[in-house]
Each structure stands twice: as C-alpha cells, then as structure tokens.
Amino acid sequence: MTIMIIGLLIFLGSHSIRIFAENWRQQKVAQLGLPTWKLAYSAVSVVGLAIAIYGFGQMRLEPIYIWFPPMGLRHAVALLMLPAFILLVAAYIPRNAIKAKLGHPMLLAVKVWALSHLLVNGRFGDIIFFAAFLVWGILAFKAAKKRDRANPPAVTATSIPATIATVVIGVVAYALFAFHLHSLLIGVSVFG
C-alpha cells in the first residue's frame, strides 16, 4: 500500500499545485515557458499515476477489509458512472452546454467516480485511493470556482449538436467501459 500512497502523493500533489501554490505555478510558467511547464507537469503526473496504479494492484493482493458493501450498491455505481462519463467527455468537446453550465465537468466527473467507487469498495486501500481522489476533486473544484470568480472565463455560445455529441459519446464510452474495458483493465466485471 505504501507504493500506492507514494504514487497518489506524486500524482495528486502535482495536480494540487493550482489549489495550494497558484502563485508559484505562475512564476514557474513565466520562468520556464508554458510548453516546458506542461511537459514537466505531464511527466511527473504520468509517473505518479503509474506508481499509484501499480501500488493499487499490489495492494489488492493482500487486502485489509474494513467493510463489505451490499451487492445492491453495484447498481448505484453503474448508474452514477453514466453521468460521470458524460461529464468527462464534456470537458473536451467545445461549445457543449454541459461545460458552459457547470464550468469544470472533469472535476465533477472525478468526484462522481470517486464517490461511487467508495460505495462499493470496502478494502482499506480502496478507501484510501478513492477518498484521496474525492478530497482532491472537492478542493480542486473549489479552487477552480474561486479562480473563475476572480477572472471570469469568456462566455462562449453553446451548440446543440455539440451537446448532443457530448451525451452520445459519453454514453458510448460508458457502455464500452462498463461492458468490456472495466473487466479487461481492472479485473472486475461491472455487471457480473
């Protein structure tokens, strides 16, 4: 579990710079240039995520159970993950109404994903993993909204086709992940 925690500290720590050290970040961007900053930030993030995922897999080999969630909660997770995928897609499709209304759909997707997975995972390591992402998501969303209030983003016109595409792609991505990729990549069948 130590490896997972180290990975989480690296990954979520790098992603917390805008929460706790925005001025330092701005200084580094000015000093290094945005492309160099993004490259360094991405490298640290990828390394941290890889370590966290590896540690998560290792933690599952010797689980410590805190509680045993009722099987019925799996249905709640399956239901909650549908809007999480749509929110995730909304972060990337320009001019969709979901992003225009919510502002930071990626952070909302992380919060829904983490909370829903806390419902069905009773192992100590799982609780640490998903709770860390949930706490980070809450803090990052709060910080992003504070930045928006200080410097409001430009209002862009929304597009009905972009919004429909966001929902359709989100539903398709959800179906692919729920019915195929989750069991292949995570080793747990969503509906089995």
From TrEMBL:
Residues 3-189 form the NnrU domain. InterPro entries: NnrU_dom. It is found in: Membrane. It comes from the Bacteria. One of its GO terms (cellular component) is membrane. The chain crosses the membrane at residues 37-56, 76-94, 114-141, 162-191. It is a multi-pass membrane protein. Signal peptide: none annotated. Pfam families: NnrU. Keywords: Membrane, Transmembrane, Transmembrane helix. The keyword Membrane applies. Its main location: membrane. This is NnrU family protein.
